[in-house]
Each structure stands twice: as structure tokens, then as C-alpha cells.
Amino acid sequence: PNADHEQSANHVNDDTLPSSKFIVKNSYDGDERSVQTYLRNVQITPSLKEYKEFGAPVGCLENPKIKSVGCQFDGSLISHITEQKPTSIITLAACKHRPYVVTGSDQGLVKLWDISKLSDGKMYTSSLSYDAGSPVTAIVPIDGYDVFALSTKDGSIQLIRVHVQENSSLKTYTKFQIIRKFLLKGASEHVITMKTSINESKPLLIAVTNFCKAIILDIRTLTNTMTIENNISHGSVLSCVVSNDGTWMVLGTSKGILDLWDIRFAVLIRSWSFGNHLPITGLALYPPMSKKHERN
Which residues, in sequence order, are bridge partners of residue 160? Predict the structure, then answer.
């Protein structure tokens, strides 16, 4: 049976994994009390790869068929997915290092699709399914890990790990595992879009809400490190883009205004507006160009 069948399992472990505990020691052997007090109060947070509940870090997917000059798409249809009916797919996120995508519906259904098996005709249904209990609003992958962030209409944000079983060249996706949860405090507040800035020493998840807020979360513990409130007079925030190093972000609003924020200090740097004031529904970083391309 497929994932919609009444006998199908909900492929998720609802028992949220506790955050890893670490003991930090120092090598100071002296008797100076002030030094000992200082060392005891130094806050050291391990890097993301030290948290075992995220799984082992993995590299990007490499395809020998793709040349350095870029992909050559022929536009041919490889599969037509209908399992999601009658619900509507609201959001979709693709993994960069494995051939799968995760979709979320307006009924709260989260599904994982194995693209390699769909394209080969070996499978016509989803590999994993999960009922989030509330309409899904956004999904974003955590680059370098088999983990994705999921937000729902009830104000919940979850980090969900995809468990992968590998036997020689065969990869099987076995289950979802909820490893972190965060709940927004505002009544009727929910996330509308999410972005990530993945750095081993400071991995960030930026969640933009329907209250014109950008909540900066530390992915390691999914705790709130900063909340930025955009000017309501600029309109509702509809889109967001974050720099690769996690130092700035740009918010696009319903009134056609772009707001540039320095997220290190929660400072609004500059705002721009377009003459037609049309809503800005999407933002993306322009791909970096080499100096050779810049000269051309």
C-alpha cells in the first residue's frame, strides 16, 4: 500500500531526541582563583557536527554527467506524482547530497520522494510519510545533513532527520526522526518562509513570521538568539534572503520595499522601494561569478 492507505504507517518517531550534553574542561593547573573563575564561565558551544542526533555530515551530490560549464536540461517529464491528491502541495525542498525531495501539504502531510526510483520507474509512491497535524507552511533543508526544518500553521518549527540505510550501492530511507522543536509565543503567529546559513561554528535558521518578525535560531539547539521586527509600515514580509556567511539578510514586503538588515547587531542598514510598489514574493542570492565571467 502507498502512504495514503489506511494500513500505512506514519513513518516518524515522535519522541524528540534530547540535545547532546557536553562537558568542557580546561588544562589550567594553577591556583589563581580569578583565572579559575574566568575559565569556568567561558561559554563554549560545540560545532554542529559534534551533535550526533544530526547524523554524520555528508558532502554535496556529485554527478559525473554534469560538466563544469553547467547542467544541460532537456525538459523531459520523468514522473507525474498524484499520490498527494486531494491535498495541495504547499512547499517543496530538495536535498543537495542525496536524490530525494520532501513535500508538505495544506493538510499537514509531509512526504519524502526518492527521485532516483521515480525516474527509473521502480517506485510510484512516496518512500516516507508523516502527519504534522497542522498545515505545512515551509520546508528548508539543512545543507550537509539529512535533516530538514519544517514549520506549520500552529506556530511550530521542527528539525526532522531522515534516517538512511545504505547497503553497498542501495540506499533506503527508513524513517523520520524529530530531533528539535520550537514553538512561537505569539497567538496565531506562524512562519511563512525560512532560510538557513550553515556554518559549523554558527549554523543559523532564519524564520520569518506573519507578524513581520525574523526569528534567528541556532540550529544546534533550536533556541532563539535574536528577534528582528521589521517596520510594519513597509508592509507584510513575504520573502527573505540571507548571505552565505550569515551576516546580513534582505526582506521583501507586500508594498514592494526591500529592507537590508545586519543580523549580527539587529540593525536596519537601508531600505529601497520600487515605483510600482508591487509585492516582492521571492528573493534569491545571485550565483557568484568568477573574475573571468565578470570581465565578460
Answer: 148, 178
Where do the DSSP E strands lie in the chain? 12-13, 89-94, 100-105, 109-114, 128-131, 136-142, 147-152, 156-167, 170-183, 191-197, 204-209, 213-218, 223-229, 237-242, 248-253, 257-262, 267-273
CA dihedral 280, 276, 286, 93 (to 10 degrees): 20
Does the pLDDT value for residue 114 go beyond 60?
yes
pLDDT of residue 232: 95
Q: Give Cα 241 to chain centroid, integer Å.
A: 13
Mean pLDDT within 252-274: 95
Assign 151 to helix, strand or coil. strand
Q: Is the peptide bond before 86 cis (omega within 30 degrees of 0)?
A: yes
Give the pLDDT of residue 67.
Answer: 43
**pLDDT class for 33, splitting at 50, 70, 90?**
confident
Instruction: Tell me if residue 115 falls in helix, strand or coil.
Output: helix
Cβ–Cβ < 8 Å for 141, 160: no
Residue 17 confidence (pLDDT): 62
- For the whole prediction, is pTM greater than 0.85? no
State how far the Cα of 204 lies from the Cα of 225, in Å rounded to an integer: 9
Q: Residue 113 contacts by C-beta under 8 Å, 6 or more apart in sequence?
A: 81, 100, 101, 102, 103, 126, 127
Q: Which one has a higher pLDDT value, 204 or 25?
A: 204
Query: Which residue type, as a one-letter code, is found at position 47?
Result: S
Closest CA to 48 of 189, 222, 164: 222
- The rounded distance, in Å, linking the Cα atoms of 192 and 157 is 11
Query: Using CA atoms, how far apart are residues 224 and 201, in angstroms rounded to an integer?
Result: 16
d(CA 210, CA 138): 12
